[in-house]
Amino acid sequence: MRGHHVHVFSFSPPPADAQYQHSRPLGPRTPTKLRRMTTIPWNLNKLDTAGLDILHLHGDDWFFVRRDLPTIRSFYGSALYEARYATRWRRRTSQTVIFGLELLAARLATRSYSVGPGWPRLYRLSGVLDCGVELNEKSQHGRSKAPSLLFVGTWEGRKRGRFLYEVFSREVRTRLPDAELWMVSDEGFSGDGVTWIRRPSDEQLAQLYCRAWAFCLPSTYEGFGIPYIEAMAYGTPVVASPNVGARYVLNGGHTGLIIDDTKLGDALVRILSDAQLRSRLTQAGHTRANDFGWELVLDAHENAYRETLAAGVNRRALTC
After folding, report:
1. pTM (2 d.p.)
2. Domain 148-291, what fold?
């Protein structure tokens, strides 16, 4: 960790090989959505931050008003856009409320950052802090014999697993009878060239990325899009629907295909049939994934921490 002491406050238990200190915040073991919006953010005021220089917050902090040290806030998606692309009215309503809370969180933080460009100015962001990904992943498993397409996301909602399944069954499977769709999702079923994997281990998911001929996530909105980068890091060509995260991560379509809904079926058939296209996108995607390697991401975070510490000192001086 570059010589830094890291203390993580999280409801999730740390992995066995964690190299950081871990504590559970105050609150129930499995917080409900309502608690995450209300009591969990308020309980942060009781957080013991003694001995820390800076606190990096990643969500649910809008009622955290007792901040005794500089704080930095990362936003991984905008609730405004989540509401805009929500498929259910309850989701749309809750995200609209959370958008107002996000604006409050941005103002409480010393500095705020997004994980990609193109955010509303109301957040008053100081810049971009990307997510990181492991590079040069290796696997003993080669590509599958039959043309294979991988999806990682949810069956319903903006990730649109059901939509991809329908396009695959209607347009891809009829033209490529041996094609396979591997769906890592919360819901689904297996049959007719489709394999549903609900909760693969990290190793199993890595093997799926390595063996798939292409990866497709037809999401209507991604603030960033970690699965896109994971696929490129494993050398798997990416097909995405137009959204802000896809345009950023795929460099405007230069390192992956960004396709409208009406042309998605043709694009999937093309990428599964054209070895030269897959080879070109594999090389371009792997080069792009290097931009999100941990060394570069850690450099950016360290710079942000220095700037936040300096801003925190200046803010205290102005209030004295």
Report:
1. 0.88
2. Rossmann fold (3.40.50)
